[in-house]
Specification:
Bound molecules: zinc ion
CATH class: Mainly Alpha
Number of domains: 1
Structural class: mainly alpha
Low-confidence stretches: none
Largest sheet: 3 strands, mixed
Oligomer: single chain
Number of helices: 9
Shape: globular
Radius of gyration: 18 Å
Distance between the termini: 30 Å
Strand content: 5-15%
CATH architecture: Orthogonal Bundle
Strand order of the largest sheet: 1-3-2
CATH topology: Arc Repressor Mutant, subunit A
Length: 188
């Protein structure tokens, strides 16, 4: 359950970041540009210095579907390693989600190393995940821009393409922002 006023805070934050980046309210937001603006490094697995061929193959081929992004904070730097083979919508959503965690100052370490050198995921924090999804959604698909585009008759497919999001994220935003409900009422 999101705390009261959180959704509105996300919409305002998203509008402010668009303004900082010199983007119009209805323009797509490339999360890579937002990361740069926030001073956050974004790497693909290929960029990891000294990464072995086997590990790289595991991350980009064999297990490519099992992970999206990993955020690491070390020596005052924040680094997001982003799965490089996923499609645009999934990649944008993954990066926006990680940036949202960072913006919201959630516990940055999503991974830690076990003594035998394996990486383990932190315990899943349901509230933090919901908050990050909410902010990521607002960053990629601001409510006002989405409503305006729908009213102008843009199809879901064109909308998803314009904002660089998956069809699933678009559906989720139409639902969670109450836009679908609002539009169904206004048609009555
Ligand atoms: Zn998360």
């Amino acid at each position: 359950m999101l705390r009261r006023g959180f959704k509105t805070w996300c919409e305002n934050a998203a509008a402010n970041y668009r303004r900082d980046l010199g983007l119009a309210r209805g323009a797509p937001l490339d999360p890579v540009l937002l990361a740069r603006h926030l001073g956050i490094l974004v790497w693909s697995p290929q960029d990891i210095p000294g990464i072995g061929k086997e590990v790289l193959e595991l991350l980009t081929v064999d297990d490519a579907d099992s992970w999206d992004a990993v955020t690491i904070e070390a020596e005052g730097m924040v680094l997001v390693i982003l799965n490089s083979i996923s499609d645009d919508g999934r990649r944008n959503n993954s990066l926006a989600h990680e940036l949202a965690h960072i913006i919201l100052e959630h516990e940055p370490a999503h991974v830690f190393h076990t003594p035998d050198g394996h990486m383990m995921m932190n315990e899943y924090n349901e509230v933090h995940e919901e908050e990050a999804d909410c902010l990521a959604g607002a960053l990629l698909l601001p409510r006002d821009a989405l409503l305006q585009a729908i009213r102008q008759g843009m199809s879901d497919m064109a909308l998803a393409r314009h904002f660089g999001v998956s069809a699933a994220l678009l559906r989720m935003r139409r639902n969670k922002t109450g836009i679908d409900k609002q539009l169904s009422h206004s048609r009555v």
